Fold this sequence. Notes:
The complex is a heterotrimer. Chain A is an alpha+beta fold.
Amino acid sequence: MTIYSFWIFDRHCECIYHKDFKRPQRVLRPPTLASTTGDTKENAQQQQKRVVSSGGPPKGTGPLTVDDEAKLVFGVVFSLRNMVTKLAGDRESFFAFKTSKYKLHFFETQTNLRFVMVTDVRVEGIRPILEQIYAGLYVEYVVKNPLSPPEHPGGEGVNNELFSLGLDRFLTPLEIFE
Amino acid sequence: MAVRTPRQVGEDVWKTRIEKVNAELVTLTYGSVVAQLCKDFRNDYVQVNEQLESMGYNIGIRLIEDFLARTNSERCRSFKDTAEMISKVGFKIFLNITPAILNWSQDNKQFSLIFDENPLADFVELPDDGKAVNELWYSNILCGVLRGALEMVQLQVEAEFVSDVLRGDDATEMKVTLVRVLEDEMPVGDE
Amino acid sequence: MPSAIRLLALMGRENNPLYVRSFDRDTDSDTDPDRFNSAKADLRYHFLAHIALDVFAARLPSKSADSDFGLLFVQDGIAIYGWMTNTGVKIVLGFSSGEVIGSEIRSIFRAIHFAYISLVCNAFYSVDERRPITSRKFDLSVCRIVEAWNGSAPAPAPPRMSTSTVGSARAAPAGENVTMTYGQSRSGTPVA
């Protein structure tokens, strides 16, 4: 079992935090970048972006930038969530969906913060984990940091060391992290 | 699992999940903020009120996250539930008071919070310049906190004090009015 | 029936008068707003308060940590008792002498000290040593304390202080008086 990636979207539908974990089958990654898989994630992301900016918008199986991926992920969870509430009423929400390759878990706070975690298909019931990330890490290190801005355009204020480290420290020992 | 009343939730969270801090520290800190604002704005109390409100707003939009994280509460079904939540849980866990909810309007969109006690205003005597008593809402920060916090859970409200014992009124009363329920924001340029 | 309080004075650290008030009654009416006529007695009481300052100064070098200065002197049929806070504010009480006043007197000093603390805690009060106290709230609480002592009325409920918390708020449930360091009620056990 493993975690592939983790996302936070704010109430303005913007991705304010993103972190990739082990992604063995990042199928959309272009072959030119294969050599960089050992590098740090930031590095890889930057390189991806550079590739995109020089090579124009991604087409077909071309590289997917983090921004594009964020839009896709958000689009999916947003429509699913809306569909669920339309079908089953306001108090209903969806928790996860599964494909043959991965499972996407979703948790939304009443303040419309959305936490998304993409994991292995076998991972079950990690809603409490998402709730804990919200209550124990996000609220403590982002919201309660008086120097962080109240809104986080472009992830400003969220991507701080305490939060990142805290997240790592919290997720790594978990069973689902493998 | 039995549904717990807001009062129980409030008591419970207050007892087990809140770190307590000395009341005088809070009272004196808030007091010196207000006094300093009065000095900075040369006793233009209308501006001081505004300033306090906007400080409260900034607190509110953060505090609501803490509130939700601590209480794990469900979304309120009606504005009446919201009022209960504010008084029995919100004020309880942050200030250890439970203001009474009174004076509901016909359309259930407006109510009053009556503060029997107000930890912010202990010791306070408004300046004797003949103006403060008529213009300054000493605890106006609370209005901002409510507005900010509720806005984050998609409720746009207006909150204002209508009387205050510090001014010599019989009770301290804050009116809270629901303006509208905000829609969720849609992603921009997403087709 | 203990001796009535006839004078209350607070003197600042610089020995400047902060508050001098007489509780001599001109009338027997409890409702007459002018029942404590200060103008007439003022000068005499200012004298007494200032004499007290000399006694404070004289005793201070040999004084231990305690605030209680006990009986300072008796003059014009008024027994003057003193109390000095750690910040150097002196509280002077004048009783019509005659009866011996026991250690209960400490409680009333504490109550007045507490009233002073509440006054200072008001954010709008500028702690200015030079300026005499003009606060309606302080007037009222002092008046209540003294009247409770002089009359047979029960002592004022102990004010809250210090032990309460905010959660940010206070821990004591509404309506419950927090036991505190200041202002025991008169009938309570004297502080050792």
